[in-house]
Amino acid sequence: DTEVTQTPKHLVMGMTNKKSLKCEQHMGHRAMYWYKQKAKKPPELMFVYSYEKLSINESVPSRFSPECPNSSLLNLHLHALQPEDSALYLCASSQEHAAIYGYTFGSGTRLTVV
Amino acid sequence: AQTVTQSQPEMSVQEAETVTLSCTYDTSESDYYLFWYKQPPSRQMILVIRQEAYKQQNATENRFSVNFQKAAKSFSLKISDSQLGDAAMYFCASPSLTQGGSEKLVFGKGTKLTVNP
Does the structure show a pLDDT above 90 at B16? Predict the structure, then answer.
């Protein structure tokens, strides 16, 4: 299995809703990432988990809450989002030496906040 | 810290022709890696090619090759025999170490490539 699987592919939620995005990989990668991508822009890093521990939080608002229950699974819990949070949310994973081997990305979740 | 710059927001090429996408970068590290990622309308970021800085030889993957000019800090992507399926956003990227020792991927702003039949 050489894929990063993200669910759901599309999500529409109201500003008072609570929802979660899910990311899964079975490549034995020990680092997992959440990126946010607005239209026609590059991805922006949100969080990095290394060996199931949060290692980078790029000053993301607390309405986004990441969770890494195990080495294969990464969640992003969403609560009280704003319309400007509408974007493509990409998950990625990498081996320990990501610089050498690169990153494997999922197809993303297209989030719309109404 | 790494910075990555792509100065061509859009490019177009005729099918079967060759196109070159530009990327420049800045880094304080002595050894580093550079990547080109492709993002088609399907949204998935796909690794096209990577280059290790200390390797003199330019990387090649089938129709994709790079022109790596270390002194000029330039890392351009050449696509030969362009195909309709090459149409996508192309991002130049490089890993950057954070103060905490973790690593993050820094992207350029991207170049949208259109392939005309």
Answer: yes
